[in-house]
């Protein structure tokens, strides 16, 4: 039997499997891809919480792309995608290094020329699937600043680990110790 953690978003309940991520901790694994009813419910809830001053929605690869697209579709706002690597169509991309809890080595966030043009001088809301350590958010903030955009809000389906007052989230996922002790907030 798989241990699970229940979340409810927009009236939809899901039992997320608790999976180990290293020798000491396990997490409740949220997977939106393939769960269209949950994606739609999350998009509806996030749209209702979107700061009205938002001009453009920004989603980081990978979890944020689906949400940014659906949220843009629902609200009629444009969206931009932040990639994890430079793509062949990018001539002068903006890049910033990022270190997250889920990666062993430093990676980068990349904003292509076309997406940089969409956000330049505009108020943006960043949307992602799960916000954990916040490393990606810090790097996204630097990237948005370099592109001339102003982040007015950060939205997520879930926060994980420490509760974050700077993120509008639909639920919170605790981190579970593997030794059987109580979950961390």
TrEMBL record:
What is the protein name stated in its UniProt record? Adenine phosphoribosyltransferase
Q: Which domain of life does the protein's organism represent?
A: Bacteria
Q: Which UniProt keywords apply?
A: Glycosyltransferase, Transferase
Read off the CDD domains from this record.
PRTases_typeI
Which source organism?
A: Micromonospora tulbaghiae
E.C. numbers: 2.4.2.7
Q: Provide a Gene Ontology MF annotation, just one.
A: adenine phosphoribosyltransferase activity
Q: Which Pfam families match?
A: Pribosyltran (PF00156)
- NCBIfam families xref list: PRK07322.1
**Transmembrane residues, as ranges?**
none
Taking every annotated instance into account, which residue ranges of this chain make up the domain Phosphoribosyltransferase? 45-168
């Amino acid at each position: 039997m798989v241990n699970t953690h229940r979340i409810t978003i927009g009236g939809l309940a899901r039992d997320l499997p608790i999976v180990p991520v290293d020798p000491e901790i396990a997490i409740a694994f949220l997977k939106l891809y393939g769960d269209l009813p949950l994606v739609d419910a999350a998009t509806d809830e996030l749209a209702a919480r979107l700061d009205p001053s938002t001009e453009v929605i920004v989603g980081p690869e990978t979890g944020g792309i689906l949400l940014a697209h659906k949220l843009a579709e629902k609200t009629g706002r444009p969206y931009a995608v932040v990639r994890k690597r430079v793509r062949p169509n990018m001539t002068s991309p903006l890049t910033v290094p990022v270190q997250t809890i889920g990666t062993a080595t430093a990676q980068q966030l990349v904003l292509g020329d076309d997406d940089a043009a969409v956000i330049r001088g505009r108020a943006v809301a960043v949307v992602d699937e799960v916000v954990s350590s916040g490393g990606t958010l810090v790097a996204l903030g630097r990237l948005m600043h370099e592109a001339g955009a102003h982040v007015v809000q950060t939205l997520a389906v879930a926060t994980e680990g420490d509760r974050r007052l700077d993120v509008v989230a639909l639920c919170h996922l605790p981190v579970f110790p593997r030794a059987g002790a109580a979950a961390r907030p």
